[in-house]
Amino acid sequence: MVAIYLSEIAHPKVKNIVKPLVELLAGIPSVVYGFFGLVVIVPLVQQLFGLDVGETALTGGIILAIMALPTIITVTEDAISAVPQVMRDASLALGANQWQTIYRVIIPYASSGIISAIVLGVGRAM
To answer: The ABC transmembrane type-1 domain covers which part of the protein (predicted)?
Structure first.
């Protein structure tokens, strides 16, 4: 959804700010994410749920999601941006609105790139 927002809906000023930040997050090493999780997320989960130990599967899942999402967002946004403008224009000319164009034309056209992004993100998490 973030990739769709960045490529199709966001104002260019917002896109020019958010996209480099997401790409910067994608470049952070896994060790840094692990350290961030131990220092910030583990105590937060421990305090939030009143546990003796905060190193749980939930904590690991949150850290892995934070680590994988920037990669998925970046590659998916590139795949969506690669959809030819002619496809968008043809859908809009046939009477579809912007959301119908996104759902029925852009996402199916970019589906191989979206699946590749998910595989890359999960691969980084592994």
So the answer is: 1-126
